[in-house]
Amino acid sequence: MKVATLADALGLLGERKMFTLSELVSAVAGKVKGSWWSHPKGGLIYQIGSALEDHADVLVVKLVEGRVTYVHRVLWPALLRVVTDAAWRKPRMAKLGADAKQVLAKVEKLGEVTPVAAKPRGELEKSLLVLSRSEHTSSGKHQTVLESWRHWMQRSGAKPSGSLDEALALLGV
Predict the structure, then answer these.
(1) Cis upstream peptide for 115 (omega within 30°)
(2) Cα 173 to Cα 164: distance, rounded to the nearest angstrom
(3) Under 8 Å between Cβ of 99 and 138
(4) DSSP symbol at 130
(5) What is the mean pLDDT of each run of 10 residues along the chain (173 residues)?
(6) How far apart are CA 77 and CA 166, in angstroms?
């Protein structure tokens, strides 16, 4: 499916339920050599990706092989079933460095934290132990906010469901 608008991207997401930024790039611009930022449709890719991030039915996480992934609302219960499962979280927490463990404890206590140093933030984003999102500051810059899944569930109203095995199968992870 070719994507030229936010509506097209939402249509694709409705069909597939999730896709990566790389797949969005291909859907907008076809095969891109090198960075999509320098592609003639780079601005359009950025515009559509940003609009997806802001859409109420879309959650952006580093789900598929640590890559930016757009997840449709229908998969949120399965995603939450996985990322809030104590047995699933335990080995990921054990692999974290000391700084990332400290940041995780702070995020779990406060609900959300910003700013966060790049290395622990990267570890936590890839581990999926927290939700990472980008926000615009009043100065026009972007900052990363790390949010606990429990805090996000309260804010979004989403709830985990199903068994862990069912959720993993639905997500394909």
Answers:
(1) yes
(2) 11
(3) no
(4) S
(5) 95 96 95 89 94 95 90 98 97 97 98 94 94 83 92 96 95 86
(6) 11
